[in-house]
User: Fold this.
Amino acid sequence: MKNFKLKPAIYSLLFLFSAATVSSCGHNDDDVEVVPAKNEITITAPQDGGIVNAGQSVAITGSIVGEKEIHGYKISVRQKSDNTELFTKSVHDHAAKLDINQIWTLDTVARHKELELEILATLDHDGKTLSKKITLHALPAGVHNVGTITITSPTNMQMVSSNQTLKINATITGLANIHGYTLYIRNKDTGAELLKKEVHDHAKLITISETWTAPVVTAHTNLELEIVAALDHDGGTISKKVDFHAMP
Assistant:
């Protein structure tokens, strides 16, 4: 008799379990709206630290994703030195995701200028915004790179003795990759070349650490170290010299 009374309860539980299973299996994950965990701006072009030339058309692309509807955005390009604006563009689209696809043409540039590109998104009508910035380097038309050479050894007017080992330490930095360098040591009194070494490293930062043995001299001799770095494949170079002396 007890078993008979339990059967309806068991059947009820099985029915409820089956109904829940069918409901779960019938649920379509594609219908679930995925809400971003945060507001985010992504800039895909130009690259942070990139080089742009005068007259060049620059594609500005990316996206803005919001927790809620984005209320438009503004693109600004300005000089870092004085905040002079070179380009602005406001877009008043409204969506949870906005794709950025704009074109900006750089005007005349006489010398290297550091620029800042900013995308400012409006998140609501209460003044809440989100910003992302990258750095760009503007160069004259046809100029592909600029760089600097710093020589820390030998120091200017340093003295070395005959057969002394001299340390040659320096760094070369470029906005883009440096395309190798050449070391020269010359006798300034005679013009004779005492050292020529070519190195074909490619990097934005090149560290030079070399040694050179001073020749035997019988009198005070004026020497010169020169480093010549290749900025590009079009023949652009920079150089730096240091004078030093050899004694018997």
